[in-house]
Amino acid sequence: MTAQDMADVFHRIALLLELKGENPFKIRAYKTGAETVEGFAGDIVALAAANELGGIKGIGEALRDKLHEMATTGKLEFYDKLKAEFPESIFGLFDISGLGPKKIALLYKELKVAGVADLKRACESGEAGKLSGFGDKTVVKLLESIAFHEQHASEFRLGDVAPVVEQVLAALRENKQVGRVEVCGSYRRGKETVHDLDFLVSSKHPQEVIDAFVELPLFVHTIAKGGTKASTRTKDGLQCDLRVVSNEEFPFALTYFTGSKEHNVALRQRCLARGWSLNEYAITTSEGAEPPPPVHDERDLYRALDMEFIEPELRENTGELDAALHNTLPRLVELSNLRGTFHNHTTASDGNATLAQMAEAAQELGLQYLGIADHSKSSFQANGLDAARVRKQIAEIRALNDDFDGFKLFAGNEVDILKDGSLDFDDDLLAELDYVVASVHSVMNLPEAEMTKRIIKAIENPYVTMLGHVTGRLLLQRPSYAVNIPAIIDAAAATGTIIELNASPWRLDMDWRWWKLAKAKGVRTSINPDAHSVHGLQDLFFGIRSARKGWLERGDVVNTLPLGKIEKLLQAKRERLL
DNA sequence: GCCGTTTTCGGCCCGACTGTTTTCAGTCG
């Protein structure tokens, strides 16, 4: 079992205990236990196996023993017994917004609702509406939630599939029969969600490669298996396809399977104009046409069409082909360009690493600075800081900074934007901070005009350095609240406010589709992981993918600036309007 | 189930909103 597997068991125990109406604090203990395991910096599996888990906050005697059992036997008897009391499909009901443990338990007890399909039936038949605590409006809301859920069925967040991609690529690379290896499809294009994974390899022995592929331990089911392609499924239902081609075919197949479909159609049209026909294996020449130059890799393919190489993230047929013809493609920002990042939480609010631990992790990543932005007081659920605690944290940060060499912690705060657009702290306190992230965390159901006005009011406060997760969406779980993004972009442009690109794979917010507009208006971004643990800093990787998909260059991303320059920028943002 | 400069029990995270109620339970952040 991996650390994530063990954390998942704790998460599920918490859900099952909720269904049983157990002591809420016991449930909480399992949830924090799960988060502690997820965020643990070190090999928790090895430690648990060796019975050397001690003194970890949030892991007491009972959880420690359970981790030991999982690490040594790969199972947990307590969980297996608990699980047997409910059908497996019942977990799906927790993804329906508007449903919590009490309602799910009632639905199961009274109507034998064991999953989303049952729920839909019970809502449509009118049975659900008769239950105590349920009414017409509840049923309508549930049906809406089910529809949203169905719309995104069999989609996966980038963060959920990235570990699978890494494992499969590593396994394919180890195979001696395999030459070139790539992951294609929407994953390679950096889409925020994918519904399957497409792998491509070159080999002279396709059957052997296919046979080895379907036997990989992370697959639980083989959907199809032939001489050059196979389809499998992981335990989470993620479909993984493999195509095997020859080394000569590889660049054509890579382009073809990377897509997008629209990009490929446009590429083929350009080939036709030269008397060439492009498919996933080769370019063929019609009679009388000039033969294409030799193509050994993707770069050659684009070069054959007199184009610059088009990065996979840009291949959506939204202007990239023309830009490639005219040498006006952006030079996309890269992970290695980042020098620091803002919007990170610590144990002061709802993070699980201390200031010092976060600072150390940032330095290990090679960053020169890290912005701390814990929650403000109105975010009670996240243990938000009041003014006194903010001032205490500022002092702690200043003290830590005295000991750093070539690294700096910035004292910030993720200040709640209240319902009327005012901020959770007064300007005097904001002025003591190095920077401010302003975010909406409550009353997300305002009409669009009101929500837009509310956010713009916050942006207009000169102490607001950047706007956090603009739309509040949680991918595959909760849609954006109603907000006029172009109006927000205009306001940000007028005030010099940075719009965050929240890099959490749950958010990736602002969406990549808006960045071209923002860039055209002169709005810059900060790619922020919204890290709640040391591990969370890794989410910068997903943020970079989205930024690239939004055509962003190094100059568009403020946290590519070195320490000296970012300090000046934060200062200038305030002075500009004060 | 966790935690403790109050050490083996008694706290632990609070408030808004919604829809169902007719004073409150459930969900969410």
What key attributes describe this structure?
578 residues; DNA-binding; 16 strands; 23 helices; alpha/beta; five-stranded mixed β-sheet
Description of the molecule:
There is one protein chain. By secondary structure, the chain is α/β, with parallel strands linked by helices. Helices cover 42% and strands 13% of the residues. It contains 23 helices and 16 strands. The protein has helices at residues 3-19, 24-39, 44-49, 61-73, 77-83, 101-111, 116-125, 136-151, 158-174, 185-188, 206-214, 250-258, 261-272, 298-304, 320-325, 355-364, 387-403, 427-432, 448-459, 485-495, 515-520, 540-549, 563-575; strands spanning 156-157, 178-183, 193-194, 196-203, 219-225, 229-234, 239-245, 276-278, 283-285, 340-341, 369-375, 408-416, 437-439, 466-467, 498-502, 525-528. The strands form four sheets. The protein has a seven-stranded parallel sheet with strand order 10-11-12-13-14-15-16. A five-stranded mixed sheet has the order 2-4-7-6-5, with helices on both faces. Helix 21 (515-520) links the parallel strand 15 (498-502) and strand 16. Helix 1 packs antiparallel against helix 2 (24-39) and helix 7 (116-125) packs antiparallel against helix 8 (136-151). The chain is globular. The chain starts with a helix and ends with a helix. It binds one DNA strand of 29 nucleotides through helix 2, helix 4, helix 6 and helix 8.
Topology (elements, then pairings):
Layout: H1 3-19, H2 24-39, H3 44-49, H4 61-73, H5 77-83, H6 101-111, H7 116-125, H8 136-151, E1 156-157, H9 158-174, E2 178-183, H10 185-188, E3 193-194, E4 196-203, H11 206-214, E5 219-225, E6 229-234, E7 239-245, H12 250-258, H13 261-272, E8 276-278, E9 283-285, H14 298-304, H15 320-325, E10 340-341, H16 355-364, E11 369-375, H17 387-403, E12 408-416, H18 427-432, E13 437-439, H19 448-459, E14 466-467, H20 485-495, E15 498-502, H21 515-520, E16 525-528, H22 540-549, H23 563-575
Parallel strand pairs: 4-7, 10-11, 11-12, 12-13, 13-14, 14-15, 15-16
Antiparallel strand pairs: 1-3, 2-4, 5-6, 6-7, 8-9
Helix pairs in contact: 1-2, 7-8, 19-20
This protein binds one DNA strand of 29 nucleotides through helix 2, helix 4, helix 6 and helix 8.
